[in-house]
Amino acid sequence: MRKVKAKKHLGQHFLTDLQVAERIVGSLSGHQQVKKVLEIGPGMGVLTDFLVQQPWELFLIEIDEESVDYLLEKYADRDLKVIKGDFLHREFRTLFEEPYAIIGNFPYNISSQIFFRVLEERHHVSEIVGMLQKEVAERITSKKGNKTYGILSVLLQAYYEVEYLFSVPPEVFDPPPKVNSGVIRLKRNAISKLDCDEKLFFRLVKQAFNTRRKTLRNALKPLGLSEAFKNESMLGLRAEQLGVEEFVYLTQQLEASWKQ
C-alpha cells in the first residue's frame, strides 16, 4: 500500500516508533468499563494496529480523505468503523449513547480545541489518552501555583483526574516536529455536576486567566462585581493561585451577590 503524505495544513506528524505506539495504546485503561473507543486522526494507523488487538469496539475519525481511503483499504477485513469528518464539528451522541474513550496522536494545531470539545462531551467521555505538544500536555496537567497552569488546567481538572505519562522526542515522527511531545491520560471523576452554576464557572475561569497578571478583583471586573463581592479576600489573589474548589467557591459567591 502506498504511504499517505503528511499534510502540514492538517498538522500531521505520523508516529513511526512502534514501541511508543504500543505504550500509548497500553495506557488506555478502559476506565468505567467502556466498550467503545474513538481514535482521533489515525493517519496510517500506527496506533490502530495495536487498538484492533483489544476487545473494544473501535471507531476512527479522520479528516484527511487520503488517510480515510488508506484506512478503509488497510482494515477492510477488520470490524471497525472509519468516519470521514472533523472531530471538532461532529455530533457523536447517536454513535455513543454510553460512555466511550478517546485516544489519538492529536494534531498540534487543534489539540486545545479537542479538549474544549471533550469538555462539552464530558458526560459521555470517560477516558482520554492523547499525545500532543509537550507544552500543552504540561499545561493541562499543571497544578495551581505553576506558570503553565491555565484555563484548560482548571476546567479539565474539575471533571477529570489528569496525569502526565511520558515525553516523546521529535525523531520518532515523520516529518519530525520542531518540539517535543507529551502523552497524558484523563479519567472521568465522580463529579457529575459542580456545586455551582457551571456556565458561570466556565465564564469566570476564562475571564480570570484572560488577564492572569492582574488580581482577580481587577480581572473579574467585566463580570459586574457587586460592592459586597469586591470585599471577598480571595479576590486579592491571581488566577494561577486558585484550584478548582476555590473557583467553585468564587462562582457561588458571585452568583449570590447578583441575587442580593
Q: Count up the helices.
A: 10
Global mean pLDDT? 93
User: What gap, in angstroms, lies between the N and C termini?
Assistant: 68 Å
How many strand segments?
A: 9
Backbone CA Rg: 20 Å
**Structural class of the secondary structure composition?**
alpha/beta
Sheet with most strands: strand arrangement: 4-3-2-5-6-9-7
* Biggest sheet record: 7 strands, mixed
Helicity, as a percent range: 25-40%
Q: Unreliable stretches, pLDDT < 50, 5 or more residues?
A: none
Structural account:
By secondary structure, this protein is α/β, with parallel strands linked by helices. The chain has helices at 18-26, 48-51, 65-74, 111-120, 134-141, 151-159, 198-210, 216-219, 227-230, 244-259; strands at residues 14-15, 36-40, 57-62, 80-84, 100-105, 125-133, 160-168, 173-174, 181-188. The strands form two sheets. Strands 4-3-2-5-6-9-7 form a seven-stranded mixed sheet. Strands 1-8 form a two-stranded antiparallel ribbon. The N and C termini lie far apart (68 Å). The mean pLDDT is 93.
